[in-house]
Design a protein that fits this description.
It contains 21 helices and 30 strands. By secondary structure, it is α/β, with parallel strands linked by helices. The chain has a domain at about 520-645: 2-Layer Sandwich (GMP Synthetase, Chain A, domain 3), CATH 3.30.300.30. A hairpin with a 2-residue loop joins β26 (about 520) and β27. The longest helix is centred in the first third of the chain and has 17 residues, at about 110-125. Bound molecules: ligand 6R9. Pfam families: ACAS_N, AMP-binding, AMP-binding_C.
């Protein structure tokens, strides 16, 4: 599809926009030339207990990287997301909860109710011994208690670490131990797509390897019979009934930690990305308002899970800071049928709908009759996030879901960036299918050659880096600042390196081409090849494994595993199934291998390094251009790999 396809903002979008095209250009120029002035003004959208006088104090200078914003400001995020709305919109719905089962009752939680629920949870956490600065792991399904728990932590100054409910007990234990959580919040079970997920049983298993946990707070969700361990396990509803329905928000310094979120990197175990208070909430609320052109009274639905950063910033913190009505959906797009998203849009009269390209591609494959059946006239704007969107999926979304009327907002960002960095502002920026378009205020993207040369001409291709700090950015990796510095600031000194490749076209538009490191993006979920490899080699029959991504029609990328077995083991279908299940058990279902190839040997350099470039090419079926193979220790290995490739 042509890059020349350009969609100008609709007249309706122009008429209502918070930011016009001219204002975007002027404000953008100001935001980068005078960050202190620009962000001092933007900070006023937040209620501060003490206003900040120092705005930006950040340097990307290697190795002394230090990121601080609003550092003498004092505030509480829970008060900003709840209390300050009570006078004007106590009776307005803050959260609409749509259950997995369409026949079950939806819940409408007003800001007044949210205040009570969060306060009670905060008091329960205090009664369990949680103090400011303590870590609390949240392992919950998409139920309102997930938002209550996050906000309750923020209210008392505890640092939450939300772990996606699809992760295995092992993965959960690793994350609990890494940040030393004393308290875990979970549910008896979760529900998803008509199935149940044994969350409490998973926690029980995880805690065998996480002895530091003292208390487990359990939501009574499905009513399943679960084991409650005497002094350790506490029912949420019982504890909440016994505490006061109000709790003073703790004064927090702008740079006090708000949350840790584990995400995959190219090497080693997942990193605990740390976000702090002031800069994060200013950035989350501003980007939520401007990227979606959010107005009071609109119903906004982001289909992400709170276990990912999108759920943090664009289901909970950004929308609630703006006094929005935000939808939490417990289910999946295909249950009970592939019309579910559109039914929910119709049912709750959604104005702004935000989802991932992988969901769009899957629903596109299901045919247009599902979309046509529903009344989608409430929709005004459609967002996408999580991975590059192919122009075909963009066009399908625009034509069939948006019926040609809705702005499409492709938002590029990362767990580490806290909020959107590149995205069209509706009503201001023309869109091109497949491009995330232009940077947000204060964001200075640059394109570097892989060797690190700055590409100064507008039209350029290379790796994407960011020149200067913005308020929403992660401050460090929990317990490992040197890993933070080496991961993001060492390869291209003086810049934040995103790990993504990109093109910049003649209009300065950014086209993200995907990761250039060993991070996979499977249906919008981030996974490190190293994590999957280490799960595979922990199986007693596996001697070596190398994992790469390959193009996958629905998932964007699929997981391709090359596995070398211990000598004497039989390479058969039964073992492939066993290994697939093994990885699911070790990490979780999202990491299930798509293709496994038995590899008697892996292509290695003479110094023993696996040549992943070759493995990627074979997995992509592109072995005509393997590049330089002269450093291979044993070239015959490659012939075998090509003959036995799985992705034909
Ligand atoms: C928010 C989120 C980050 C990685 C990122 C990039 C990919 C996200 C994208 C996109 C192209 C978009 N990504 N949004 N690629 N266009 N609109 O997804 O965070 O889970 O940390 O993933 O996802 O590769 O580097 P996270």
């Amino acid at each position: 599809m042509s890059e020349q396809l350009v969609f100008q903002p609709s007249a309706a979008a122009i008429a209502r926009t918070h930011v016009t095209k001219d204002q975007y250009e002027q404000l953008y120029a100001r935001s980068v030339s005078d960050p202190n002035g620009f962000w001092a003004e933007q900070a006023q959208r937040i209620d501060w207990m003490k206003s900040p006088t120092i705005i930006k104090n950040s340097t990307f200078q290697y190795p002394d990287v230090s990121i601080k914003w609003f550092e003498d400001g004092v505030l509480n995020i829970s008060a900003n997301c709840i209390d300050r709305h009570l006078v004007e919109r106590g009776d307005q719905v803050a959260i609409i909860w749509e259950p997995d089962d369409p026949k079950a009752e939806a819940e409408y939680i007003t800001y007044a109710k949210l205040h009570e629920k969060v306060s009670r949870c905060a008091n329960v956490l205090k009664s369990l011994g949680v103090r400011k600065g303590d870590r609390v792991t949240i392992y919950l399904p998409m139920i309102p208690q997930a938002a209550y728990a996050m906000l309750a932590c923020a209210r008392i100054g505890a640092i939450h670490s939300v772990v996606f409910g699809g992760f295995s007990p092992d993965a959960l234990a690793g994350r609990i131990n890494d940040c030393d959580s004393k308290v875990v919040i979970t549910a008896d079970e979760g529900r998803r797509g008509g199935k149940t997920v044994p969350l409490k049983a998973n926690v029980d298993k995880a805690l065998q390897d996480a002895p530091g946990v003292e208390k487990v707070l359990v939501v009574h969700n499905t009513g399943a019979d679960v084991l409650m361990k005497g002094s350790r396990d506490v029912w949420w509803h019982e504890a909440a009934a016994g505490v006061e329905p109000f709790c003073d928000p703790e004064p927090m310094n702008a740079e006090d930690p708000l949350f840790i979120l584990y995400t995959s990197g190219s090497t080693g175990k997942p990193k605990g990305v740390l976000h702090t208070t002031g800069g994060y909430i200013v950035y989350a609320s501003l980007t939520h308002q401007l990227n979606f052109d959010y107005r009071d009274g609109e119903v906004y639905w982001c289909t992400a899970d709170v276990g990912w950063v999108t759920g943090h910033t664009y289901i909970v913190y950004g929308p609630l800071a703006n006094g929005a009505t935000t939808v939490m959906f417990e289910g999946i797009p295909s249950y009970p049928d592939v019309g579910r998203f559109w039914e929910v849009v119709d049912k709750h009269k959604i104005n702004i709908f935000h989802t991932a390209p992988t969901a769009i591609r899957a629903l596109m494959g299901a045919g247009t009759e599902w979309v046509e059946k529903a009344d989608l006239s409430s929709l005004r704007l459609l967002g996408t996030v999580g991975e590059p969107i192919n122009p075909e999926a963009w066009m399908w979304y625009h034509k069939n879901v948006g019926r040609g009327r809705c702005e499409i907002v492709d938002t590029w960002w990362q767990t580490e960036t806290g909020g959107v960095l590149i995205s069209p502002l509706p009503g201001a920026i023309a869109t091109k299918p497949g491009s995330a378009t232009l940077p947000f205020f204060g964001v200075e993207p640059i394109v570097l050659s892989p060797e690190g040369r700055l590409q100064e001409q507008t039209k350029a291709e290379g790796v994407l880096a960011i020149k200067e700090s913005w308020p929403g950015q992660a401050r460090t990796i929990w317990g490992d600042h040197s890993r933070f510095v080496s991961t993001y600031f060492e390869t291209y000194k003086g810049y934040y390196f995103t790990g993504d490749g990109c093109r910049r076209d003649e209009d300065g538009y950014y086209w993200i081409t995907g990761r250039v490191d060993d991070v996979l993006n499977i249906s919008g979920h981030r996974l490190g090849t190293a994590e999957i490899e280490s799960a595979l080699v922990s199986h007693p029959k596996v001697s070596e494994a190398a994992v790469v991504g390959y193009p996958h029609d629905l998932k964007g990328q699929g997981i391709y595993c090359y596995v070398t077995l211990m000598s004497g083991e039989t390479s058969d279908e039964a073992l492939k199934i066993e290994l697939r299940n093994w990885v699911r058990k070790e990490i979780g279902p999202i990491a299930t291998p798509d293709l496994i190839q038995w590899a008697p040997g892996l292509p290695k350099t003479r110094s023993g390094k696996i040549m992943r470039r070759i493995l990627r090419k074979v997995a992509e079926n592109d072995f005509g251009s393997l590049g330089d193979t002269s450093t291979l220790a044993d070239p015959a290995v490659v012939t075998d790999l090509i003959e036995n490739r799985q992705n034909r």
